[in-house]
Design a protein that fits this description.
28% helix, Cytidine Deaminase, domain 2, alpha+beta, binds tetrahydrodeoxyuridine, 142 residues
C-alpha cells in the first residue's frame, strides 16, 4: 500500500465528502500520508454548539494518534469548499490549531511534512514548518 501526491489529494477529497458540516456548509477533508505507505483521513465535524467544531486536520490527527500511528508523517493534503464545490476557489490552509495538532504528530515521527493545500487553479505546497515556524512541541517537555 502506497500513496502519491495525487492519491493523497484524492483521499482528502473523498474524506471531504463525509464531512458533518450542517452549519457552515463548508466541507473539508484532510489526508495524512505516512512513510510506511499508509493514509489516515479526516473530515470536519461540526456541532450545534458552534465553538466545539473539529476541523478535518484535527480529526485526522486524532484518528491517527488514537490508532497508535507514531511513524514518519511525510505529507498532508487538505481540500475544502462549500458543499458541492469542494476544491473550488482558493486553497484551504490549515487553521492555527490544526497546525499545532499536525506538528505534534510530525514531531513524533521526527519529520517536517509537506502540506498540499488544494485550490482550483493550483496546489499550494508548503512545509509544515513554514505554516508554523518555531513551533512548540513535545521536545519542549522532554
Ligand atoms: N475547517 C477545517 O476543517 N479545516 C480548516 O483548516 C479550516 C476550517 C472547517 C471548520 C468548520 O467546520 C468549517 O471549516 C468552516 O470554518
Amino acid at each position: 500500500m502506497s500513496w502519491s501526491k495525487e492519491t493523497l489529494i484524492a483521499a482528502a477529497r473523498e474524506a471531504a465528502g463525509k464531512a458533518y458540516a450542517p452549519y457552515s456548509n463548508f466541507h473539508v477533508g484532510a489526508a495524512l500520508g505516512f512513510a510506511d505507505g499508509s493514509v489516515v483521513t479526516g473530515a470536519n465535524v461540526e456541532n450545534a454548539s458552534y465553538g466545539m467544531t473539529l476541523c478535518a486536520e484535527t480529526v485526522a490527527v486524532g484518528k491517527a494518534l488514537s490508532e497508535e500511528w507514531r511513524g514518519k508523517l511525510e505529507a498532508v493534503a487538505v481540500i475544502g469548499g462549500k458543499a458541492g464545490a469542494v476544491g473550488v476557489g482558493d486553497p484551504v490552509t490549515p487553521c492555527g490549531r490544526c497546525r499545532q495538532m499536525l506538528h505534534e504528530l510530525a514531531a513524533l515521527g521526527k519529520n517536517d511534512p509537506t502540506v498540499w493545500c488544494v485550490g482550483e487553479d493550483a496546489v499550494l505546497e508548503l512545509a509544515l514548518s513554514e505554516l508554523l515556524p518555531r513551533a512548540f512541541g513535545p521536545g519542549a517537555l522532554a
